[in-house]
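Handoff note, outgoing to incoming analyst
You'll be picking up this chain. Sequence as last confirmed:
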Amino acid sequence: MLASDVLTSIDAGAFALIAAGELWFQLHQTSLQVAEPAIARHVPVIGPWLWHPAISTLLTWPALLVLGVPGLLLAWLFRARRHRTGVFKS
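Most recent structure output, in case you need it:
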């Protein structure tokens, strides 16, 4: 995403970040169109609320932020760790 945003910014001649919703639309338009009614209909109680203030707001944020922050967090949580050799280990 970072490379795509940098190249887009260079082409545009200004700082430009792609929105998460725009990225989703470019990758798979049909699933984006089906997601809202599916969530509203199949998620009990909070389905309609979940889409319109929550997910629709998230889709307007930069994709780099929406995908990058959880990606970095997951990479950090599941990183390979060195095994320490203890002083008192026999």
